[in-house]
Design brief:
By secondary structure, this protein is mostly beta strands. 5% of the residues lie in helices and 55% in strands. The chain is built from three helices and 55 strands. 21% of the residues are buried.
């Protein structure tokens, strides 16, 4: 008995030792060859890990003389630069600054290389802006109108009607506007301008791909900070970044670094977290800054997988007045000078041309140039804007002119700086007596007697503002201008504002004319008493030293229409009390208002009606005045709720239309309809769309609501048994559907006669047809059972 126990123990011990030996052998497979075997070479398929980043790449690895050899192509695909790979088989153990380790347990080859060898990763903000939405347009017409009438006891009554007519489509936009005026009573006809006065007529179009716009007709020339604009009748071509809101035209700061292992990079701007990005081993650069202006501080925090954290703080300065490197901005206009604008409808003078060009040379330097020309005028100038690190932006320019043999020059310079707490700015212009430009040239040739336009000889502007936190905000400005005749104007302005309790605010301002020695001032207290209503109390002092106390009560117009009012009373130290009141009402089709203002001796009563008429899709629509773009939603079904950017805009009319005015052009907005109240037999293929509309245009947005034309159909075979589950139902022009339990299948887009083919999972098939009375199934109708005689499966006997 004892002997047998000892034999059992020995056997157990022997088995355990044997198992341990096998376990040790298995755990080391496949082992590298022994270093004591010189010249031995073995090849393994191992996972390749670079700086702890496993991309799932399995490559052949040759172990020879205690060194690891990898193919050149495998190293290139892993990100190792081609310049460091000198042969078809690279000994990675012998490469400088490279460490190779064999992960025996997980069958991987671990390589540690300098982070600078790995591909650079760029973290930018292009994806954050989302996809680009090109502007859309449909063919249509628009008529804006604004009727205004006024009556005073001294001058009688007068009527004016502003109007704008607009045509738009794929060829661009045509617009013409003006005003018709008529004296109704009081002053004799002709005492003021009467009849129709045209303002502007033009055709325009845009190329979004190249960010260009064209305009033919009446136009205003573009200008720089140190040049002037004039009105021309002619042609204009210009860079137009407003058609591409997805583009950022000014340089944003970028940050770069290197990650030795997979890490997370967090960006904090002015104390707020802006983004978080996962980076792989290697160098990286980040340009996904928020769209900010002015000075700030960015903190970049890098955290690796082990929790080690490195924080770097960097100041920056962003200015939207600069251009990105390589980006250009230009405008060129040519035509005839528009004289006496707002006085005469057609008064064009001498031929003239004007052009401006800006180019971003570097992140910190933007070059500028400008030129103007006419029959007896030539002007040219150049300048630039320079960012001084994080200290702000300076600008300077020099321009020279010659008009009728007289030469002149203009010097300008300035400086701007802003941050989250304060900003300062200054701008100076000095002109010689002989300096001229198109504005002066056009005035001297306009033929309008009584006034003559002159350029100032010197101007200086200084401004500053600072946030005092709980003590409010303080602002100051100084203007110093010397006119062409030598008169000098010096004005000081100080202002202070503060929220005092709730949403109430206090505002104080004072202005002083340094040359005259007098000053004006205002103290105003605004107290809200409802969501849209507020009351204000103010004390004013004018240049003559008289004071007035004013009380105002007002209510703003709701966005979806309704009532608004404004009433005020002022106790004046000279003259009678001043009174003013107005009442406005607006719905989706029109806006009206009426009121009065004046003192006891002179009172004006007025009334106004404004809106627009739109012709599109063969129908007329009335709406509030459309200043830019609009959308006509078409559903082919009445009383459907339409939302714009999740805001309810109204219900479709009896024809299934709703006009959405007041759309910002090129803004990718979301439009959706509410189909919860639709009958069960009506359906739509889409309930939400996102797109942008071109400038001064309209778009017909179609949400087709149609009869469902679908029904459940019961299908049986020739034996009266339901067709098998998963039998395919194939119809021409329709998606394949499948039979469910009890032979029931759902069919859509049904016609009066519907032919179909059934194919069972075991290969049998049949053909049949469904006849729908009237071509439209009854709501929630079930048809059948229909008999579809199945044929034998191919390869089997019947």
């Amino acid at each position: 008995m004892n002997g047998r126990r000892c034999s059992l123990a020995l056997c157990l011990l022997s088995y355990l030792l044997s198992s341990a030996g096998r376990a040790e052998t298995y755990s080391t497979l496949p082992p590298p060859p022994s270093p004591n075997a010189p010249g031995a070479s073995q090849q393994y398929m191992l996972g390749l890990v670079i700086n702890e980043q496993d991309n799932g790449q399995v490559v052949p690895v040759e172990f020879r003389d205690n060194h690891y050899y990898l193919r050149a192509g495998d190293l290139q695909r892993a990100g190792i630069p081609s310049a460091l790979i000198t042969s078809s088989m690279m000994d990675v153990s012998a490469m400088p600054q490279v460490k190779a380790d064999y992960d025996q347990a997980r069958q991987r080859l671990l390589l540690t290389v300098p982070p600078g060898w790995l591909p650079r990763q760029k973290l930018n903000n292009e994806e954050r802006n989302g996809p680009r939405f090109p502007g859309r347009t449909s063919t249509g017409a628009l008529f804006n109108y604004d009727l205004y009438t006024s009556r005073t006891s001294a001058s009688g009554s007068r009527l004016s009607a502003f109007n704008e007519f607009r045509l738009f489509g794929t060829l661009g936009q045509f617009s013409s506007n003006g005003v018709w005026q008529q004296q109704l009573s009081g002053q004799t006809a002709g005492s003021q301008n009467e009849g129709y006065l045209r303002y502007d007529t033009y055709w325009s179009n845009q190329d979004e791909t190249r960010s260009l716009s064209w305009r033919v007709g009446d136009l205003i020339t573009d200008s720089l900070a140190w040049s002037s604009s004039v009105r021309l009748g002619g042609i204009q071509i210009a860079r137009d970044f407003s058609v591409r809101p997805d583009l950022v035209t000014y340089p944003l700061p970028s940050f770069s670094g290197q990650a030795a292992v997979p890490s997370t990079v967090d960006l904090f701007v002015n104390g707020y977290k802006n983004s978080s990005n996962d980076v792989q081993p290697g160098p990286w650069s980040m340009t996904n800054m928020p769209f900010v202006n002015g000075a700030g501080e960015a903190v970049v925090v890098t955290t690796d997988a082990a929790g080690r954290r490195v924080s770097t703080t960097m100041p920056f300065y962003v200015s939207s007045s600069l251009l990105k490197p390589g980006l250009s901005d230009f405008s060129f206009s040519a035509g005839a000078l528009r004289n006496n604008y707002g006085i005469k409808s057609f008064d064009y003078g001498s031929a003239a041309a004007s052009g401006s060009w800006r180019y971003g040379l570097t992140d910190w330097l933007t070059l500028e140039s400008h030129a103007e020309g006419a029959d007896a005028l030539a002007l040219g100038g150049a300048g630039g804007q320079v960012r001084l690190g994080s200290l702000g932006v300076v600008n300077a320019a020099l321009a020279q002119s010659q008009m009728s043999g007289e030469h002149g020059n203009q010097y300008s310079w300035g400086y701007q700086y802003s941050n989250s707490r304060f900003n300062i700015g200054t701008q100076h212009i000095i002109r010689s007596a002989g300096f001229s430009n198109l504005a002066l040239y056009g005035d001297r040739n306009s033929g309008l007697a009584g006034t003559e336009y002159t350029l100032s000889r010197r101007s200086a502007q200084y401004s500053a503002s600072v946030s005092l936190d709980r003590f409010g905000s303080l602002g100051a400005a100084f203007i110093d201008i010397v006119s062409g005749s030598g008169d000098r104007t010096q004005l000081w302005n100080l202002s202070w504002s503060k929220n005092i309790w709730g949403n109430s605010s206090l505002y104080v301002s004072a202005s002083r004319d340094q040359r005259q020695g007098d000053w004006t001032g205002t103290i105003s207290l605004v107290i809200p008493f409802s969501e849209r209503g507020n009351a204000s109390l103010s004390l004013d002092r004018d240049q003559q030293g008289t004071t007035s106390q004013r009380v105002t009560v007002s209510r703003s117009m709701p966005t979806d229409g309704g009532l608004a009012y404004d009433a005020s009373w002022a106790n004046q130290s000279s003259g009678g009390d001043y009174k003013q009141a107005s009442l406005s009402w607006r719905n989706q089709k029109i806006e009206t208002s009426a009121g009065f203002y004046g003192d006891g001796d002179y009172t004006t009563e007025w009334a106004d009606v404004s809106g627009s008429l739109v012709l599109m899709d063969g129908s007329y629509f009335a709406a509030n005045e459309v200043n830019d773009a609009f959308v006509v939603v078409k559903t082919d079904y009445p009383n459907i709720n339409v939302r714009y950017e999740n805001q309810l805009m109204g219900k479709t009319d009896a024809g299934g239309h709703l006009l959405v005015p007041g759309i910002s052009s090129y803004y990718p907005a979301k439009y959706d309809i509410d189909t919860l109240d639709l009958p069960a037999d009506m359906t739509t293929s889409s309930v939400e769309q996102r797109f942008a509309v071109k400038r001064n245009s309209g778009y017909l947005l179609h949400f087709p609501i149609e009869p469902l034309r679908a029904a459940s159909v019961i299908l049986h075979d020739q034996n009266g048994e339901p067709l098998p589950v998963s039998t395919q139902i194939i119809r021409a022009g329709a998606a394949t559907t499948y039979v469910g339990w009890d032979g029931i299948v759902w069919m859509e887009n049904l016609a009066a006669v519907n032919l179909f083919r059934a194919e069972t999972p075991d290969g049998r098939h049949c053909e049949a047809k469904l006849d729908v009375p009237g071509g439209r199934p009854t709501s929630l109708q079930t048809y059948g059972p229909l008999t579809c005689a199945l044929s034998a499966a191919s390869g089997t006997s019947p």
